Amino acid sequence: MQALIEMIVGWVGLLAAAALAQFGLVVDTPDKPEREIHRVRDCGDAPAAEVVAAARPRREC
Questions:
Q1: N or C of the chain: less Cβ packing under 10 Å?
Q2: What gap in Å lies between CA 31 and CA 29, rounded to an integer?
Q3: 3-state DSSP of 37-52
Q4: Number of H helices and number of E strands within the chain?
Q5: In this model, does residue 22 exceed pLDDT 80?
Q6: Exposed (0-12), middle (13-18) or buried (19+): which is 42, by Cβ within 10 Å?
Q7: pLDDT tens track for 29-42
Q8: What is the mean pLDDT of residues 41-54?
């Protein structure tokens, strides 16, 4: 009896997914993109370049 109920639920889910796909709704979860790994070179004894960043002042509305 349990297998029959699970089969009916599966068919209802399949029909619902097919009906919603007609309207452009995709029920599959998208795969997460893989993270990129960037390798950097070691500067050795050379001094690192200074980085100056100026932050914008926040506007309070």
A1: C
A2: 7
A3: CCCCCCCCCCCCCCCC
A4: 1, 0
A5: yes
A6: exposed
A7: 677 777 777 777 76
A8: 62
In angstroms, the CA 12 to CA 22 distance is 16
| Distance from C-alpha of 33 to C-alpha of 51, rounded to nearest angstrom | 30
Tokens 């309207």 map to which residue?
23
Model-wide pTM > 0.85: no
Residue type at 7 in one-letter notation: M
Total count of residues recorded for the chain: 61
Q: Please give the share of the chain, as a percent, with pLDDT higher than 90.
A: 21
- What is the rounded CA–CA span in Å between residue 47 and residue 17? 60
Question: For position 12, what pLDDT does the model report?
Answer: 95
8's tokens: 């009916």
